[in-house]
Amino acid sequence: MANDQVLTKEAILDAAEQVLRRYGPDKTSVVDIAKALQVSHGTLYRHFPSKTALREAVTERWLQQSVAEPLSAIIEKQHSDADEALHMWLKTLIEIKRSASLNDPEMFAMYAAVTLDATAIIAEHIDSLTGQIEVLLERGKVSGAFRYDQPADRLARAVFSATAKFHHPAHAAEWTGESADEEFGSLWKLLLSGLASSK
Amino acid sequence: MANDQVLTKEAILDAAEQVLRRYGPDKTSVVDIAKALQVSHGTLYRHFPSKTALREAVTERWLQQSVAEPLSAIIEKQHSDADEALHMWLKTLIEIKRSASLNDPEMFAMYAAVTLDATAIIAEHIDSLTGQIEVLLERGKVSGAFRYDQPADRLARAVFSATAKFHHPAHAAEWTGESADEEFGSLWKLLLSGLASSK
User: Fold this and answer.
1) What ipTM was predicted for this assembly?
2) A1-49 to CATH, choices 3.40.50, 1.10.10, 3.30.70, 1.10.12
3) Which part of the chain is the HTH tetR-type domain (chains A, B) (predicted)?
């Protein structure tokens, strides 16, 4: 049984995630989460000043653990060419989002709602992901797989934006169509041609 | 004063558009539109069987007149190179959507809602726009501005998808940021490099 002394941020987020998956993001209240932790509502508010703060913290942790970290593992594999690594990176991002929308719908709905509010945590998450793309672009420039004149950080944002239809939560309803993989395949060929040429 | 004999589809859509702009898409009822036309509610239902059908018809006309037709005019100007024409076409599409979201918010909100419902009219509209891109891609292949191996219809969809962040209504909140034009500029350079190369 938890009490205020041992109530860590991680324990709160674990409980919040569990309760959220049970009731859904709209129906979950701070009181529900406090009950799951067997602490008072006031105790919980001392750690998170609002339901919004709690929702954002749960989403932030999910984005870090379920999106940014698995993608970062692809960057750390040095053995593949940068173009192959970027292809794998984008396919993995797309698959993580699609899988979450189908298999973890409550968390995905909360992430989609937090994204609509355009909070700082989403901006930071996007900075982190485009930073990963930038590493691959620079690696590919060194290896000769990519040739480009634009600053790598801007080009990384262009690659991320260009693929938004396949990973931004507003488009989730479009991900289950039969042609989604084929469409991404065409887009990837176009982007790869652009990255491999010199303009 | 309208009566059933002279009630044309265009007259209904004109009235519906006017009422919609006054009350907004959520608060507008079929009864409001019937009142504006000075016909009975039943008379209006004989022409449009539901509020949904009326909303879709107003949106369809708006997409045709305010989006597809001005873009088609760019295609018909034969004097520019295909790459310049495609750049102008995309910038015009982006500007039409941004302007509507700012200056015609009720119509834009209805279009955004109809888009979420993924109706057949949106699919037809996208077919029409990607058909226009296809014409430019084929023209550019003939002139040498573009080199590509993919079927032009698939590549046209890839170009449309790649720019979705700048014209799909789900992203409207992102269009007013200072960096939106610069971001599109980077993306366009990448796409142009891809279209001008041979993969």
Assistant:
1) 0.91
2) 1.10.10
3) 6-66
